[in-house]
Amino acid sequence: MEKFTTLEGVAAPMRIINVDTDRIIPKQYLKTIKRTGLGKGLFSEMRYREDGSENPDFVLNKPAYRNARILVAGDNFGCGSSREHAPWALTDFGIRCVISTSFADIFFNNCAKNGILAIVVSPEDLEKLFEDAERGANATLSVDLAAQTIKGPDGGTLHFDIDPARKESLLNGLDEIGLTLKRAPAIDAYEAKLAARGWA
User: Fold this and answer.
1) Rounded to a whole number, what is the largest CA-CA distance in the chain?
2) What percentage of the chain reaches a pLDDT higher than 90?
3) Which of 21, 27, 148, 196 has the greatest count of CB atoms below 10 A from its CB?
4) Contact 158, 125 (CB under 8 A)
5) Closest CA to 127 of 109, 146, 152
6) CATH code at 150?
7) What pTM, to 2 d.p., does this model score?
8) Cα separation of 153 and 72, whole Å?
9) Is 84 a member of any domain?
10) pLDDT in tens, 134-171
11) 130-140 as b/e, with b when 16 or more CB fall inside 10 Å?
12) Which residues have CB under 8 Å from 195's CB, separation 6+?
């Protein structure tokens, strides 16, 4: 998993509440177990018209936001089904950080397992971030995970909270397998002890 330390990039505003995982990556894209190539399907039902052409009104199709790295989203982002393809699609598109007032629990956990920093802020702070994000090409935010801060284009800084274990995993690029492998020496010692006793 790619480490998350700091991120500076354009933030795209998505003032929509209850964006579910089917909207993030529709069901027709779930036939693969590869984590790559899903960016093209990200928000596809909003990004594309029925004839396959781009919807110019959708935020990620606007020139200023085509290379967005951060998404500022409405309340209850990632609700619906538990599909892990949702964070895969966000990552493949290039989005490494999503900021909202709340997330569905499974989506929130899946983000951390896939190197995406999901940040919960107050409604007041989210409104400030929406205002920053709506500046288009000037909508650059800087996120510092170690300091737990978000800096806006005018230099204003917001602090966010995060579970210490989640923070450590993201900073070190450790998913559940990586965390287990960190304990490999202790696991090996335990198995050797069992073998010595004839229990293995």
Assistant:
1) 69
2) 78
3) 21
4) yes
5) 152
6) 3.20.19.10
7) 0.87
8) 14
9) yes
10) 998 788 999 999 999 999 999 899 999 999 999 999 99
11) bebbbbeeebb
12) none
Domain presence at residue 178: no
Q: Which two tokens stand for residue 104?
A: 């569905």
DSSP state of 63: G
Q: Is residue 184 part of a domain?
A: no
First to last CA, the chain: 33
Domain that holds residue 88: 6-173
Domain count, the chain: 1
Summarize pLDDT for 57-107 with one digit per residue, the tens. Answer: 999 999 999 999 999 999 999 999 888 999 999 999 999 999 999 999 999
What distance in Å separates the CA atoms of residue 146 and residue 55, rounded to the nearest whole number? 38
Query: Could you give the C-alpha distances from 176 to 72, 75, 97, 109, 119, in angstroms and in order?
Result: 27, 27, 20, 11, 20
Q: Is residue 195 part of a domain?
A: no
**The pLDDT of residue 33:** 81
